[in-house]
Specification:
By secondary structure, this protein is mainly alpha-helical. The protein has helices spanning about 10-20, 30-40. The longest helix has 14 residues, at about 10-20. The protein starts with 7 loop residues before the first helix and ends in a 13-residue tail after the last helix.
Length: about 50
């Protein structure tokens, strides 16, 4: 997670998009951390392109 709190929402959105694009697994701790941060980011949008 970036040190700058202002970057947390963008970081989580990008991280999630990368996980989705490459169909990467995540464990419960990662899922909870992403969900907790995302809950504080109502304006954030995850944009990804599925892998071919």
């Amino acid at each position: 997670m970036p040190l700058a709190a202002a970057q947390h929402c963008a970081y989580v959105a990008d991280w999630t998009a990368t996980k989705l694009h490459w169909q990467l697994a995540l464990d419960d701790a990662e899922r909870q951390a992403l969900a907790t941060t995302a809950a504080r980011c109502p304006a954030a949008t995850v944009t990804y392109e599925p892998a071919p």
